[in-house]
Write a structure and sequence with these properties.
Length: 182
């Protein structure tokens, strides 16, 4: 899982005498947190079952049915992962992760144009995410607006983060656009 440098770095980390280091990896943590913050039970459920595979099912226009029990969805998602591995890894996964971190279609195009046919395709997948998860879409918009208005956000753990460029006026078009902090 880890490359040569990663393994060498991990060997350099050592617990102080009398202490133990514990490594944890919570499956789907970022997707689960977006679902939690947005109050979207479907997003939280899919974070544990296979949100990337769910998006793949919609990209290929064979949508998985969320009324099915978890076991049936897991089975369907395992099949999708095998059959559409490239779509999952190079499109769905990148968009789901980016979506959760506030990435915009333009930002996705700049980072991942090797994985997509066009900017139109990326916009379509982002729109698909918004349609599939309206609560997450609304939360993404609301949190941006709050960060813009206040210039800061306070986490549940009382950590503050400042924002200086959530939106700004584009001098060429005269329109308000997403800034670097969006």
């Amino acid at each position: 899982k880890h490359g040569r440098l990663g393994k060498a770095f991990r060997r350099m980390i050592e617990a102080r005498p009398g202490h133990v280091l514990i490594q944890l990896d919570f499956k789907g943590f970022h997707a689960l947190m977006l679902g939690f913050e947005a109050g979207d039970r479907d997003y939280m459920r899919l974070s544990q079952l296979g949100i990337h595979d769910y998006l793949v099912s919609h990209i290929i226009k064979e949508p998985a049915d969320l009324s099915q029990p978890d076991d049936a969805l897991r089975e369907r998602f395992a099949w999708l992962k095998k059959q559409y591995y490239d779509v999952r890894e190079n499109r769905a996964k990148k968009i789901v992760h980016g979506y959760g971190f506030g990435l915009t279609p333009i930002g996705a195009w700049k980072r991942y144009q090797d994985s997509f046919d066009s900017m139109k395709q990326i916009r379509w997948i982002f729109s698909l995410m918004d349609d599939l998860f309206p609560k997450a879409a609304q939360w993404r918009q609301d949190i941006r607006e709050q960060a813009h208005r206040q210039s800061w956000l306070l986490s549940r753990h009382e950590c503050i983060r400042y924002f200086f460029d959530v939106y700004h006026l584009d001098p060429k078009s005269g329109r308000v656009v997403y800034g670097d902090d969006s």
